[in-house]
Amino acid sequence: MKRNFLVSILLKLLLLIQLSGCSNEAASFQQTDSAVTEVGEALTFVFDSKEYDLPVNQIQGLQNYLNEYTPEEQKIEMERIVVEPFWSGKNGLLADVAYACGTKLCSHVLVHLQDDHVKSLPLDPSSIFQQAILSPDEKYAAILLGRNEGNEVIRHHLSIIDLMKLELLPIHNAEEKLRPLLSPESFELPITDLAWVDAHTLEISVPVLTDSSYESVAKWFKEDGPVTKLRFDIEN
Fold first, then answer.
1. Is 0.90 topped by the overall pTM?
2. Residues of the chain whose pLDDT is less than 50?
3. Does the keyword Signal apply (predicted)?
4. Which of 71, 75, 105, 149 is most buried, by the most CB atoms less than 10 A from its CB?
5. Cα separation of 121 and 47, whole Å?
6. How far apart, in whole angstroms, are the C-alpha atoms of residue 16 and residue 146?
7. Domains in the chain: how many in total?
8. Which spans in 103-213 are helix H?
9. Residues 105, 135: one domain?
10. Domain endpoint, select from 87, 122, 157
11. CB neighbourhood size of 71 (10 A)
12. pLDDT of residue 181
């Protein structure tokens, strides 16, 4: 499981390196039956065989970023945007929009698109979008972002999103070992797996380590070290 997880990370890193080096390739990005096919005032992409238009001017963080550039520069930046949808249903579509990508890391915004209306929520900047899974009742989303240190170490941050409000859900009573994984902009440990146990309980797998230094985490990755499972109730 962990080795497959690392392979997916490396594939994402290779994609982002290509984005930074060749902006024209971004328009043909494909992931799980989704692709950005046109850029302009809206990002047009396909997900689950359905075409969507995502109006850029309704995504405040992205629009503010583009406003820092000249019209010609904006065209280049638009071509480098990656839209990664991860859920669609009767209540619309959810997607991660990655922009301002460097060699490996991007800024991210979570968007909810329903008909022609868009709601958006900025996520932790300078990171790699790894995974998003919805709770069984589709009220919450657990979103996993990563930051790499070279090619051997990646650390994660976990955000819980209230999808009814499209707001970050604060976790007040998490045990001490979980807090670094949930604190804003905190990337301390790798998370090798996450899953919903029920509508409000999340289970994550993290390394068994005595400290979170680069040397310790790199050794753990190299040796395919042991993990422990942690559960927490997001509503308590």
1. no
2. 3, 5-7, 9-11, 13-35, 37-38
3. yes
4. 105
5. 20
6. 13
7. 2
8. 179-182
9. no
10. 122
11. 7
12. 87
Quick check: helix, strand or coil at residue 67? Answer: coil
Amino acid at 63: Q
| Exposed / middle / buried, residue 41 (Cβ in 10 Å: 0-12, 13-18, 19+) | exposed
What confidence score (pLDDT) does residue 68 get?
94
Measured CA distances, 107 to 31, 83, 122, 127, 137 (Å): 18, 12, 8, 7, 28
> Are 74 and 185 members of one domain?
no
Name which of 145, 115, 36 is nearest 80 in CA terms. Answer: 36
Taking phi over 0 as left and psi of -120 to 50 as alpha, with beta for the rest, 163 belongs to alpha
Residues spanned by the domain of 20: 1-122
Whether residue 151 contacts residue 159, with contact meaning beta carbons closer than 8 Å, is answered with no
Q: Are 234 and 171 in contact (CB under 8 A)?
A: yes
Type of residue found at 227: V
Say how far apart CA 24 and CA 98 lie, in whole Å.
16
* CB 129 within 8 Å of CB 122: no
DSSP 74-135: HHHHHHT-EEEEEEEETTEEEEEEEES--SS-BEEEEEEEETTEEEEEE--SSBEEEEEEE-
Q: The tokens of 197 are what?
A: 């146990």
In 116-143, which positions are buried (b, 16+ CB within 10 angstroms) versus exposed (e)? Answer: eebbbbebbebbbbbbbebbeeebbbbb
Amino acid at 82: V
Q: How far apart are the first and last CA of the chain?
A: 30
